[in-house]
Amino acid sequence: EAFGRFALELNERRGSAELRCRLGFVFASYTHFSRTLTEVVGDLQRARRDGLESGDYNYLSFACSHQIIAMLSLGRPLPEVAAATDEALALMERTRVASSRAVLTVARQFVAALVGDTVAPHALSDAGFDEESFRERLRRDSLTFALRWYYVAKLQLGVLLGRADEALALLREVGPVIQAGYGFYFTTELPLFGALAAAAAAGRSVSVDEALRAWIDPFYDQLVEWSEFAPETYEHRARLVEAERARLRGDDERAGLAYDQALRLAVDNGFSWHAALAAELAGRYFTARGRVQIGQMLLRDASERYARWGAHPKAAQLRRDLPHVAAFEPTAAFVARSAQAELDLRSVLRASQAFAAELRFEDLIHTVMRIVVLTAGASRGVLVLQEPQGLAVVGEFAADDGARTQLALQPLEACPHVPAVPIRLAFRTAQIVTLDDPATAAALATDPVIAELRPRSLLCLPLALRGQRLGALYLENRVTAGAFTPARIETLNLLSSQIATSIEHARMVARLQEAREAAESASR
């Protein structure tokens, strides 16, 4: 990059306008290994402008085709990419550079497939374009760059549409051809989509061991290496491949964390459709492991992202193939979704991983109370569980008391600072209880603790597992009215199943430990 910048600056000093486009294109072509892809798109736009001014039609054409590929990778809205591609193809009528026109044609048909305008979702053909004859022309005319880009686009479609066996067959056939051309940005899509194709086919058309050894592990190593120089462009890909790798190896803790990281990094660095893919794969993973609520949230998030990108057939496929996403329809509210919703999604994943990591009951209670109170924006939280003698307070966390958890096991009635009415109501009805719900307002008004403390916001969340009531989680905010927004309540509702599962698991571990200690004591 430093030498490239020196060349650009040197050319500016000499005032050589005719070289600006050529130098700018070459600089942009390889600096994706050290700069963000958004910056590269800007560099290509400048090279395109310089080519128009100087009449350098060859490098102007190259800049146009590379810019469209980068825009596609970033997940720019498909209507925007389609318009930019049509504009560039119109410009190719003047420049008459065959390779760039072929690259742009692939991009146009790729977008058409994504939005549902081709004869089939996985095909590039439409009423005015025949994919097979076009592919043969690329081979016949030795348009190698365009042919490699065509293969990458087909591999991406195969992965996106769940056609794992076809994608793997394509990877076997053309993977080495694309790898031989590593350097230009589009070729760096191969490690991500090649690894995902192999991971999806593992256990079906290829063994897990072969998938890992032949493709996933080498592709992962390549992405990690590139991530060291351009983390904004490649780290989310490395994390997503790492997640699939861990999934195949049965390392659930590592997989869950890597999916979370992949989604977060893809969002943060502007790769919107990679974020959709990460959310989809994470959702399928959690659903397959019985964590359906988290999986449902992620799959709905993926469907929304695909729809917002413009890939409505893919969003529809998710709703059709996965029953718990079927009721989801993208709305203006979802399209205008705030950054807080992104935070809530991450909160669910991170909290779930934290809960699952705790085996000791006391440690779990501390983790649950700290995460839930801070995530919900509460000033205090109380965890009440059903014990043999009845409902009992087992833990309390106050955000303004040094962020400490008080562990106890006291009957609910013996805790004068804990409101029993909303807790019993939530436990009995298995419904969320809030302070501003007219249906419960009269009952809450009879609670002496609420009357004394006068919290501005109140939320009581029932905890249950497989239909069995376990307890309730009480949250309050004494300063802010309306602190528990619908988005936060949804997040807490999703967390509740994981909390219940973790509590039951920790209790089981404790019982086993007690039984082991009793047996050891008896044997002495």
Automatic annotation (TrEMBL):
Q: Which residues form the signal peptide?
A: none
Q: Which SUPFAM superfamilies match?
A: GAF domain-like
GAF domain location: 360-513
PANTHER family given in the database record: HYBRID SIGNAL TRANSDUCTION HISTIDINE KINASE G
Q: What is this protein called?
A: GAF domain-containing protein
- Species, as recorded: Nannocystis exedens
